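pls design
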């Protein structure tokens, strides 16, 4: 995200006032578009109140919240804004990261995607997306599957932390909170491959010997 685009993001909820929001101003000069977007961000951030209510865990100034199909619409909309800002909304399952309809049967909702939102000192610090997938157990030394058949488990599909909140243990704490929510050990979570350089370092720190991978 460029420095100009960062100006269009609410510092509290990470809502991005760009993309579709800009369509209404396309007929205006570029400077006027930028000015109006800055005004929109300032106006929104003054009244912005994070709606998350389902607290999973807390550590110091960090709070991790979970958003599911049972969560109020406002929570799902806010988590959708975070996914859109990180530029991976198309990778998040659901109705354009609306997660899913509340009318879905209960037994189907259980295994639908879950969003875990870390909040650091009152500001959204990122997002973690987890869903039920089939994963193969692999050894880090060979990175080859050591299990013949895949096993379904909760799998981390996307983890993203805002630049201003990195190197503070936000990602590892959020993953730990997700594991606690599902009642499993961190090492038992699956991971969607391939990884970025920082992503691989995170996974190796949490699962140093064997890792459960799901190829994308």
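designed seq:
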């Amino acid at each position: 995200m460029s420095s100009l685009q960062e100006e269009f993001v609410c510092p509290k909820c990470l809502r991005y006032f760009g993309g579709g929001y800009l369509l209404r101003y396309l007929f205006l000069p570029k400077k006027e578009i930028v000015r109006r977007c800055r005004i929109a961000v300032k106006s929104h951030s003054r009244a912005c109140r994070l709606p998350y209510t389902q607290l999973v865990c807390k550590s110091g100034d960090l709070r991790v919240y979970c958003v599911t199909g049972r969560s109020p619409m406002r929570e799902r909309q806010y988590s959708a804004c975070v996914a859109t800002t990180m530029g991976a909304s198309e990778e998040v399952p659901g109705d354009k990261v609306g997660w899913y309809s509340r009318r879905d049967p209960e037994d189907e909702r259980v295994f639908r995607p879950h969003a875990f939102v870390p909040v650091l000192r009152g500001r959204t610090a990122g997002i973690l997306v987890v869903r039920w997938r089939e994963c193969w157990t692999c050894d880090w030394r060979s990175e080859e599957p050591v299990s013949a058949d895949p096993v379904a488990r909760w799998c981390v599909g996307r983890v993203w932390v805002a630049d201003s909140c990195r190197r503070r243990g936000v990602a590892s704490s959020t993953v730990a909170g997700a594991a606690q929510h599902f009642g499993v050990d961190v090492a038992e979570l699956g991971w969607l491959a391939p990884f970025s350089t920082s992503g691989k370092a995170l996974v190796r720190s949490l699962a140093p010997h064997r890792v459960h991978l799901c190829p994308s």
